[in-house]
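Notebook, bench 3.
Goal today: get a predicted structure for AraC family transcriptional regulator from Pendulispora brunnea so we can plan the truncation constructs. The sequence was checked against the plasmid map this morning, with no discrepancies at the termini. Length recorded as 267 residues. Pasting the sequence as submitted so the record is complete.
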Amino acid sequence: MGERTRPRIGLGVSLRQTPAGHYAHASNTDHVISVHAGPPVRSSCVKHRSVRKRGDISLMPAGTSDTWFDDEASASLDLRVPTSLLRSVAEEMGLDPQRAGIEPRYEFRDAQIEHIAWALEAESRAGFPNGLLYTDSLGTALAVHLLGRYPAPTPDRSGLTPVQLRRVKEYVEEHLDENLSLLRLSRIAGVSTSHFKTLFKRSVGIPVHEYVVQRRVERARVLLQQGELPATQIALDVGFSHQSHMARWMRRVLGVTPTSVARSRAV
């Protein structure tokens, strides 16, 4: 009597079979731990290419999404940890439940997570013969391990680290002609999309979209002054959809037109 007990909160367990090709992990309210459960699979995402082996783990926090490409069909054991479970366990650990979360990590090994995952997979395959008490205990052990080993980083009021900022800037410079997305750039920085927007602005002083536009305008200015390519080609090469799109942004950023920039090149 009087002892406070944590309500049972279902831990999702599912074996996911996916064919070769693109796969998208949609944002949801649960934290997802994905453990590769099949033969080795060649996989790629953004600039990273690897071979996933049985037992390789990826942590995808609640509210995050991701995409990748698998060369072959693959099998993964997905554990869905409700946000409410993580918060409840955090409170029991003396942590702030409202800040309870995990950091995104990809393709790493952790013997304790793997042990819990296979135990839950065996329990699910057998029809959960040991009941809620067993799965609750495994879910609690998993939540305690995640909060202790892979807690979400405390927001950095100073912005992105120098290494993170350098990686993002280098990627932008190398891919100005592409349709750069917040998801892709936040993945390069290794933070969630929502945090990336805030941290980037703190680091650079302007929103990431405005920064990309400024870099495109500057690249276009240099190419126009070189006089080796027509303006229509330059617009496409630096990521603008067409010449008038480039001209509009050049007037906004530099206060000049592409024609005047081209005429100002040194003889």
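The longest helix spans residues 131-149. The chain has two domains: 12-149, 162-263.
Flagging this for group meeting.
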